[in-house]
Amino acid sequence: MKKFLLLLILVLLAQLEIFSQANKPIPITVGPKPTYVNGFFNFLVNDYRLIVTTLGIDKNFNGKEDSGDVKPALYQISLNQIMNGNFTGSLLTELDFGSLPFPTRIAIDNIGNFAYIPNKLTISKILLESGDIITTINPFSKLNLPPDAYISSVDFVNGYLFLSVRAKNYNNFFIVKESTLDIIFETATEPNPQQSVVVGNYLFILCEGTLGQNNSKLWVYEIKSFDQWEIAFVKEFEIGDTGNHLRKVGNDKLLITMNGSHQIHILNVTTLQIEKTIQLPTSGYDGPRESGIIGDKTIVTTAYDGNLYIFDTNGNQLGRISIANKLEGIFTYTFPNPNMNFSIVVATSPFLPNYQPNDKIYLFVNFLSNVENNIFLNNFKIFPNPANDYIVLSLNSDSEFPTKLSIFDKLGNKIKEFNFSFVGKDLLIPISDLPSGSYLAKIYGTNVVQTLPFVVVK
Q1: What DSSP string runs through 344-377?
Q2: How far apart are CA 68 and CA 84, in angstroms?
Q3: What pLDDT is recorded for position 25?
Q4: Each residue of 364-373: b (16+ CB within 10 Å) or e?
């Protein structure tokens, strides 16, 4: 999987000119008002897939399906198809009109076979290969829940569904065993349970609170036994205004994105202490929505002011990328080979600046190589590309010069290395012995490390 994904990224970077232009996003068309995005590798067809939920359109806001309305839907995006120039997602299945709350966070099982999508108080289990709804899960058929109650988020952990349920006067959280529909854990929560995440032996429940009030809470439970589901309340965090999103970072950190407070809290799962709070430059209703992680030290956050904000885990802002349209969900993936610095970042955009529906998500590949106004600026370039007998390493800055260049093949193996002591503006690198294919040049400068793709054609 990892080797194929790297090859796919290399070919994408080499074949599509847009990837060489200062980190411009690739807009991909889906249905109206995309919110949630996730990704997985499809082993059946050797392709990396993105899954996007779109909320559809209720043109007259009457809660009924009329002419001109659009149903919510599930879309699939193939990176193989993007490589071939197709920038439109494929409709997997339409969902019931008005069935998805905003924002909607669905669940995908551990290996990418199924999606679990809320539909009021039931859950549609969808086979991702075909888009077919294979079953409807009704965990609350024996409970007398309020008529306006709905599932606001679903998480899936080893055969169990983690469900946040809210209504005007009802806030609750459940853990349900999928195979039997037994409710094995239930607790009332603070207003508007938003999302849950399991990190190590801890269960975190984010309660959004009331917009404009500093009453958002994060509840922490310890799962003492996953077999018997012994769960004990540990502590409560008062975290500010309108908690919107949780994202775990490995097994020791948790990112908490605060829409109303315009903050990102970094919680240490080992000590159960908030060790850093990052204040974003957003304001009003243009606050941050979701945060992702690249590697283990770089945070990427979407915001309704149309920017992707980039921070390190020490709270320093490394840069931002402007897309203009309002940004909601985020998906990040970092290639795990330590010799590479490749990453994928995908942001959804449900609205244009005037809050009219948008139908685009935005894909970045090799995200950190070009973030404007940060330490990852392009200091070098390689040409010609494709190449044959040689490549030229050119310096874009008089203040920077390379000290070493390593060449890696498509599997991440280092096959050549060149060391430099004194250089001019351009360096000629012999590659006549390299067979046709895609390669990475990792360039070590005095202050930067940069990775650039190139292709050899004989």
Answers
A1: EEEEEEEE-TTS-EEEEEEEEESGGGS-TTSTT-
A2: 32
A3: 81
A4: bbbbbbbbee
Tell me if 244 sits within 8 A of 263, measured CB to CB. Answer: no
Amino acid identity, position 154: V
Please give the structure tokens belonging to residue 391. Answer: 């490549």
Bridge partners, 343 (sequence order):
334
- CA–CA separation, 198 and 231 (whole Å): 12
CB 97 within 8 A of CB 69: yes
Token output for 343: 């990453």
Check residue 284 and give its pLDDT.
Answer: 92
Pull the structure tokens for residue 90.
């494929």
Element of type H or E holding 7: helix 2-15
Q: Taking a C-beta distance cutoff of 8 angstroms, is the pair 405, 447 a contact?
A: no
Contact 17, 39 (CB under 8 A): no
Angstrom CA distances, 186 to 138, 162, 173, 328, stand at 16, 10, 6, 29
What structural domains and CATH numbers belong to the chain? 2-369 (2.130.10.10), 380-456 (2.60.40.730)
Strand 288-294 vs strand 298-303: parallel, antiparallel, or unpaired?
antiparallel
pLDDT of residue 101: 87
Residues of the chain with pLDDT under 70: 1-24, 83, 335-342, 366-379, 396-400, 410, 422-425, 447
Query: What's the pTM?
Result: 0.78
d(CA 164, CA 218): 13
Longest dimension (CA), the chain: 77
Number of H helices, E strands in the chain: 2, 35
Q: Parallel, antiparallel, or unpaired for β 202-207 and 307-312?
A: unpaired
Dihedrals φ, ψ of 333, to 5°? -145, 130
Q: Each residue of 252-290: b (16+ CB within 10 Å) or e?
A: ebbbbbbbbbbbbbbbebeeeeeeebbebebeeebbbbb
Q: How far apart are CA 33 and CA 20, in angstroms?
A: 28
CA 98 to each of CA 57, 77, 171: distance values in angstroms, whole numbers, following the listed order: 9, 23, 20
Q: What is the rounded CA–CA span in Å between residue 73 and residue 331? A: 18
Residues 172, 39, 71, 103, CA torsion sign: positive
Cis amide linkage into residue 384, ω under 30° from 0: yes
The sheet carrying 47-54 orders its strands as: 34-42, 47-54, 73-78, 90-94
**Amino acid at the residue 36:** Y
pLDDT given for residue 1 in this prediction: 45
Nearest residue to 37 via CA among 366, 360, 371, 255: 360
Q: What is the pLDDT of residue 321?
A: 86
